[in-house]
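This section describes the prediction task in plain terms. A model, or a person checking by hand, is given the sequence of a single protein chain and must write out its three-dimensional structure as a string of tokens. No templates, partner chains or ligands are provided. The sample shown here is typical of the held-out split.
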Amino acid sequence: MEKLEKLTRLVADGRHNAFTSMTRFGQAIYLTYRTSGGHGASDGQVVLLCSKDEGRNWEKLNSPFQAGRNYYEGFLIEFKGKLFMYAGAFESNLPVSQQLSSEYAAWTQDGINWSEPQAIEPAKWRFWHPVIIGDSLYAARYRLTTRENMTEDGIFPAENWEVDLIRSADGLDWEFVSEISRNEAGNECELFYDGEKLTAFVRRENCPCTLGMRVSFSPFEKWSAVQDFGVCVQGMVVKEVNNRRFLFGRQKISSSLIGSVYGDRSHISVQGYVWEPKIGYWVNYLQLPGAADCSYPGIIKLDDQRMLISYYSQHEYLNDPDFSDMDKYSDIFLAVVRTDGKIEWGKIVPYAVNLLKKHGVL
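The expected answer:
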């Protein structure tokens, strides 16, 4: 049984299209992505698409994040009868490398007519995917406190990054709850609530650049010590679909050529993992076609056996003579993936290998 049933190259218009988000609202599926001249370009806009036939056909709608700023991701979530979109943004009059970004929100009740973008206070913080817990909306916010002291490799000191947990009753006004990450170069932070505990998956930019995991219990004011995922995963999303827990993101592995995750972009893939209760850890599930600048998926359920995954990638252009990593062309893809497929036991992450050895499986 093929786990990847269908792959559609949804957007391929010569632009750098990236950073997807997807959700259901009413009787339709909504999809966002950023379009720009390049990953670090200053002309970013959030495109909004809508499908009323389970992702087979799409129409373009007016997006609230189109002009006046350099917008990035447009994270979607339905909350208290409204569809919210959250976008990080830089001011468009300066290069991205000279600025710190801030977060903006917009909402709609009908999926068509959006409010004006509203700045989320305090400024100079960015969101990752918000989640609903009880009657509140929670999000991990992150920031680069200063752009000073960057290394020649483009890496900022670990202490320059901060990640917090925040909470909102209306999706617009947010309050601080707790500190998730300090002094480990943490930035993008995916939240997953299983009904008992909240897990934070923290992208860590420096060595170890592997994904870090922390857990917290209500009222989420204290977090456990970090547990190392064992693999570098970035631009990640975690969703439970058909009673199985999936994690998809950009996997970077050490290059045999240079012994580093930072230089050899050919060792990048869009990798999916599934939670295995028998060993209490994540195991490889499916690698999607992707390379170079890629990932930032959205995931929704299609039916009792399938999920729809949106993501972006540059793999179609690797052999083009004018290909430029993180620049120029990047396309949006839609993957129909079975949720009842078998685990790839031969590709489990290092921590899971140790658990299997401990229990005498390996």
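For orientation: Residues 255-263 have pLDDT under 50 and may be disordered.
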